[in-house]
Automatic annotation (TrEMBL):
Residue ranges annotated for the ABM domain, each copy included: 1-90
SUPFAM superfamilies, sorted: Dimeric alpha+beta barrel (SSF54909)
Record-given protein name: ABM domain-containing protein
InterPro entries for this protein: ABM_dom, Dimeric_a/b-barrel
Species per Swiss-Prot/TrEMBL record: Cellvibrio zantedeschiae
PROSITE patterns: ABM (PS51725)
């Protein structure tokens, strides 16, 4: 399993941002191997973190190569005050099972 964490400093959003953001979300959810996502906001820094969970690297790369994702990346300076992406391979998942999580389908090697 892989995660792609998109961390960004919020800027000024417009209608185009919201439309493109929703289109990318729809594309991600339609890709075989997409497992789910979560979002977090740090009120102190103003940064937002979106974590996408993927069954495999090929599924993640399908989103990265999609024209809508490429379009958003090219226009990010219009809406964001900086960003960073962290791609990680998950080695282990554990917990008490008290809530459903996208990583629940990961089978530890």
């Amino acid at each position: 399993m892989y995660t792609a964490t998109f961390i960004f400093a919020a800027g000024q959003y417009d209608e185009e941002f919201y439309q493109l953001d929703e289109q990318i979300a729809e594309v991600a959810r339609s890709i075989p191997g997409y497992l789910g996502e979560e979002s977090w906001e740090n009120k102190e820094t103003g940064r937002v973190s979106n974590v996408y969970y993927w069954e495999n690297l090929a599924a993640l790369q399908s989103l990265i190569k999609h024209p809508k994702h490429i379009e958003a990346k090219a226009k990010q300076e219009k809406w964001l005050s900086g960003y960073q992406v962290v791609i990680a391979e998950v080695q282990r998942v554990y917990g008490d099972g008290a809530f459903v999580h996208p990583a629940d389908s990961f089978v530890n090697p």
